[in-house]
């Protein structure tokens, strides 16, 4: 264990990492992906910042806040391979997507390309932007189950036309838990002079990021999920050559500021009105804390979580008699398991039963899409062509293999009731 300034008990016990969070000890929490979970040490930092803010609000907002913004932004930039000048804080990735889409102008006949795996909130924002300007939303159908990341590239690029103006795509899909190949995709889009908007809600802290290297136009990601900051912290990355186009959803004092010591981009986004900035200001603490928990830092943490979720996926798929829905190289810290058809149309009942009867928190997600068969070449099993219910598991450091085994036991217990 590396040394760090946080009050962590020594030596580690079986519940060592779990003790660093305030999660209900009676619940098997396998749903970090939905809203994240903030460690106690980071929440304590937030409490300190709030006390500092309330002790002298005027001095805090007028004198102390900007230097704190800058530290938080630079710390985040260092982790995700960006320049601090390219980053603005927003409350969540949905706000980031909306900010870009409401800033850009399109013309009738323009095409806005997305996929059938796009997050519903972001897809709604894309629909509204298209309706406002008379543009058309084009959907690339990515089959699921999926055989390889190349299928994603082929599906998206086949739908690119001379009218394509923007591509909106998830980095990690929410419903199906796929890590999409954004780097080669963006390279192809850049070669065609097509802008990219990446909804990276789950990506920071789950997969390694180097946004400058990738060459993305716009990227938004949450800090409250896998970075484990307090709720209400996310970022929007805008490439410098597009910053003049992008304005915050709320226009405030920065719009006509005469200051020259800060960029117009930061003057507008850093102050949109009075709000609690402490979730953003805790991002450095969250990055430092989470990166200190394993000797290999963030690389070790992401590797650990991925290995855990892959092992859990294998155990659950074997236990349920289904095949994995995607190759291992498309898995981060979340994975989905196709459920047998006899659980069809009962996702809320199954999810509620798992929680209320077994105290297991895990999402059951409906999925409807045209899917390809995925045959296991080493066995006789063939995945159903349309897995319409998905069990999505997450893996964070506080989880343990025994928790996934408890989920498997619960599913086996329910199996006869649902299949009868």
Automatic annotation (TrEMBL):
It comes from the Bacteria. One of its GO terms (molecular function) is transaminase activity. PANTHER family: HERCYNYLCYSTEINE SULFOXIDE LYASE (PTHR43092:SF2), L-CYSTEINE DESULFHYDRASE (PTHR43092). It comes from Thermocoleostomius sinensis A174. InterPro entries: Aminotrans_V_dom, PyrdxlP-dep_Trfase, PyrdxlP-dep_Trfase_major, PyrdxlP-dep_Trfase_small. This is Aminotransferase class V-fold PLP-dependent enzyme. It holds the Pfam family Aminotran_5. Residues 62-252 form the Aminotransferase class V domain. SUPFAM superfamilies: PLP-dependent transferases (SSF53383). Keywords: Aminotransferase, Pyridoxal phosphate, Transferase. The keyword Transferase applies.
């Amino acid at each position: 264990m590396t040394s760090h300034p946080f009050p962590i008990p020594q030596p580690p016990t079986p519940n060592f990492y779990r003790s660093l969070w305030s999660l209900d000890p009676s619940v098997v929490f396998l749903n970090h992906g939905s809203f994240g979970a903030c460690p106690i040490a980071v929440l304590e930092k937030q409490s300190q910042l709030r006390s500092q803010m309330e002790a002298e609000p005027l001095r805090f907002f007028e004198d102390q806040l900007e230097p704190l913004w800058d530290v938080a932004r630079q710390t985040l930039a260092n982790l995700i391979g960006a320049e601090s000048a390219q980053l603005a804080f927003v409350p969540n990735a949905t706000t980031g997507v909306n900010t870009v889409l409401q800033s850009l102008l399109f013309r009738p006949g323009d095409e806005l390309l997305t996929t059938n795996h796009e997050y519903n909130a972001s897809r709604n924002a894309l629909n509204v932007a298209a309706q406002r300007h008379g543009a058309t939303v084009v959907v690339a159908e990515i089959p699921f189950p999926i055989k390889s990341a190349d299928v994603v590239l082929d599906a998206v690029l086949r739908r690119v036309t001379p009218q394509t103006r923007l591509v909106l795509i998830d980095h990690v899909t929410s419903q199906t838990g796929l890590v999409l190949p954004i780097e080669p995709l963006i390279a192809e889009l850049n070669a065609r002079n097509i802008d990219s908007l990446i909804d990276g809600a789950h990506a920071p802290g789950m997969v390694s990021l180097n946004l400058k290297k990738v060459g993305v136009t716009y990227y938004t990601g949450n800090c409250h999920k896998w970075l484990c900051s307090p709720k209400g912290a996310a970022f929007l990355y805008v490439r410098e050559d597009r910053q003049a186009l992008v304005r915050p959803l709320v226009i405030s004092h920065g719009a006509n500021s005469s200051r020259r010591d800060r960029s117009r981009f930061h003057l507008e986004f850093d102050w949109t009105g009075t709000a609690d900035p402490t979730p953003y200001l805790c991002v450095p603490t969250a990055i430092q804390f989470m990166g200190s928990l394993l000797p290999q830092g963030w690389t070790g943490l992401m590797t650990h979580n991925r290995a855990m979720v892959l092992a859990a996926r294998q155990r659950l798929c074997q236990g349920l008699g289904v095949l994995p829905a995607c190759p291992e190289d498309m898995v981060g810290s979340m994975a989905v398991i196709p459920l047998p058809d006899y659980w069809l149309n009962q996702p809320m009942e199954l999810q509620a039963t798992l929680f209320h009867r077994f105290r297991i928190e895990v999402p059951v997600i409906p999925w409807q899409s045209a899917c390809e068969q995925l045959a296991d070449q080493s066995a006789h099993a063939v995945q159903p062509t349309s897995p319409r219910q998905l069990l999505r598991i997450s893996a964070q450091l506080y989880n343990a293999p025994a928790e996934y085994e408890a989920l498997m036991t619960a599913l086996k217990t329910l199996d006869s009731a649902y299949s009868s």
